[in-house]
Specification:
Number of helices: 6
Shape: globular
Distance between the termini: 26 Å
Number of strands: 0
Organism: Luteolibacter rhizosphaerae
Protein name: Glycine zipper domain-containing protein
Helix content: 55-70%
Structural class: mainly alpha
Order of helices and strands: HHHHHH
Number of domains: 2
Length: 172
């Protein structure tokens, strides 16, 4: 059996999302990084009560805890399964245009998977996603206002899956 491709097509994530260091499937560097940054800031703030050394130690401990928590959130989402779901279903969505294909909508779904946070709303990330769209869209012919509907659908699906209000459609 051949190894998964490490050179994805533009706008497609590598199959199995390999860890950049170990090569193991299921890497979640974005979730880990976001968690680590937030944890470091919180840990440093709490540690500051003990002076500069306390702030340093608190920052390190917070980064580790936050990184693990961020990775835990990211591991609840299977980007490969999400891509497979949308590849199969994008043409059933009300925003779908017949002259468009998955390469047009896929990057918008991927943005939602990458940015999704359990306790955040799509609107909390929308401005940043709009700003990043031109560099993230790959070969998509959509403008942000067209892609927004797909990005929101991707976000909403993750949110409904988290809440259990969507049937068993495979892993998130």
């Amino acid at each position: 059996m051949s190894a998964p491709s490490q050179d994805p097509k533009p706008g497609h994530a590598p199959e199995f999302h390999p860890d950049p260091i170990t090569g193991e499937p299921g890497a979640h560097p974005l979730g880990t990084g976001i968690g680590a940054a937030g944890g470091a800031a919180a840990g440093a703030a709490l540690g500051a009560l003990g002076g500069p050394v306390g702030a340093s130690i608190g920052g390190v401990i917070g980064a580790i805890a936050g990184g693990l928590a961020g990775k835990g959130v990211a591991e609840k989402i299977d980007p490969t399964a999400e891509e497979a779901y949308w590849r199969e279903n994008f043409h059933r969505e009300p925003y779908y245009e017949e002259d468009k294909d998955f390469a047009d909508y896929g990057p918008a779904y991927q943005m939602s998977v990458a940015r999704y946070e359990e306790d955040a709303r799509f609107e909390d990330h929308e401005a940043a996603m709009a700003e990043e769209w031109d560099s993230a869209k790959g070969s998509s012919t959509l403008h942000w206002l067209q892609a927004r509907a797909a990005a929101k659908a991707g976000w909403d699906r993750l949110h409904r899956r988290r809440d259990g209000s969507v049937g068993d459609e495979g892993p998130i």
